[in-house]
């Protein structure tokens, strides 16, 4: 079968590999879609921390189940997606029911080879049913589950003002899940096209351009002087993370979904006077995936609007670099098999 390998930063090569073996507890999937995410782009650029090469990218995927690997309730031929985080099951985090931050986690397509190939074998426990959703929607479940997890970490309540910084695919998903939780969502970004997308396609409560000199005043006015009780960073940008605290209400929660490799810092008095709660949000758990799938089936999320570019598997090496350029207007690129 054909496999696409990122051999080194900036380089892809197709390789002919043997078909994966299902084996005990391993399910086999024929790929239909792989969504391209920031992690894949950073891996290609060579800016993803703790990343080694060669590596097969791709962790947002959907396909057709060939062999269930003994997974209960699954049928060969059915459409599936996966939770691409493989955990040890025994570490302190796993024992606390938090396999998303397992000490020994292997993320498919990041720490181990991923989905940019015609067939894959994955732990049967990672399968999710896809009935009722199409191949594109299913491949978008994972990035939305990241947002769902962040919103659940923040314990967003109906009627709260939630500011989400960063209107990329993860931020958009976070905004949608916050809206579903009943929040008044404020989108903050520095890209006017993306802010327009938030307003027109997502119907967020308000948008703010972070480059406006009075951005803080705008957020204050939108929240009737209170400021948002939840601020969620979905940029991973150091400046954005450092300045996020200024938008937070007293008594509020600041949740970091985006990842930055440098140390972040903000004023202790600013943090302290708010009695802020700071938390990170890593990956997602089954509950988040199931919540997203339910929301898609109900039609409360229509993530196919995020897909701006589609490409055949064979064309990925020729197209990939262009997705690093914001001028191409890419939100989500989707690979077809
Ligand atoms: Zn991703
Ligand atoms: Zn573990």
From TrEMBL:
List each copy of the Alcohol dehydrogenase-like N-terminal domain by range. Answer: 25-128
Instruction: Report the CDD domains cross-referenced here.
Output: Zn_ADH7
Keywords in alphabetical order: Oxidoreductase
Q: Which residues form the Alcohol dehydrogenase-like C-terminal domain?
A: 169-297
Q: Name one GO molecular function term.
A: oxidoreductase activity
**InterPro entries from the UniProt entry:** ADH-like_C, ADH-like_N, GroES-like_sf, NAD(P)-bd_dom_sf, Zn_alcohol_dh
Entry superkingdom: Bacteria
Quote the protein name from its UniProt record. 2-desacetyl-2-hydroxyethyl bacteriochlorophyllide A dehydrogenase
């Amino acid at each position: 079968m054909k496999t696409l390998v990122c051999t080194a930063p900036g380089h892809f090569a197709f390789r002919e590999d043997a078909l994966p073996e299902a084996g005990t507890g391993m399910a086999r999937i024929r790929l239909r879609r792989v969504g391209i995410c920031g992690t894949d782009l950073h891996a290609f650029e060579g800016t993803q921390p703790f990343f080694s090469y060669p590596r097969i990218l791709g962790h947002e995927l959907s396909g057709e189940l060939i062999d269930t690997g003994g997974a209960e309730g699954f049928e060969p031929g059915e459409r599936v997606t996966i939770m691409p985080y493989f955990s040890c099951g025994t570490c302190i985090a796993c024992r606390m029911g938090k396999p998303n931050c397992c000490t020994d986690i292997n993320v498919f397509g990041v720490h181990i080879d991923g989905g940019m190939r015609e067939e894959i074998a994955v732990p049967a426990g990672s399968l999710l049913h896809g009935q009722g959703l199409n191949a594109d929607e299913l491949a978008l479940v994972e990035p939305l589950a990241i947002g769902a997890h962040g919103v659940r970490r923040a314990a967003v309540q109906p009627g709260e003002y939630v500011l989400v910084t960063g209107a990329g695919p993860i931020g958009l998903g976070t905004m949608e899940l916050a809206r579903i939780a009943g929040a008044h969502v404020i989108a903050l970004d520095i890209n006017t096209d993306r802010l327009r997308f938030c307003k027109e396609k997502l119907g967020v409560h308000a948008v703010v351009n972070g480059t406006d000199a009075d951005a803080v005043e705008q957020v204050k006015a939108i929240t009737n002087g209170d400021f948002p009780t939840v601020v969620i960073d979905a940029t991973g940008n150091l400046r954005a993370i450092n300045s996020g605290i200024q938008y937070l209400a007293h008594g509020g929660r600041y949740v970091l979904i985006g990842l930055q490799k440098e140390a972040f810092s903000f004023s202790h008095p600013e943090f302290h006077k708010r009695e802020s709660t700071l938390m990170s949000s890593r990956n997602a758990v089954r509950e988040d995936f199931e919540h997203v799938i339910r929301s898609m089936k109900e039609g409360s999320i229509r993530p196919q609007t995020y897909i701006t570019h589609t490409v055949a598997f064979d064309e990925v090496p020729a197209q990939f670099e262009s997705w690093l350029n914001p001028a191409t207007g890419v939100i989500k690129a989707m690979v077809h098999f």
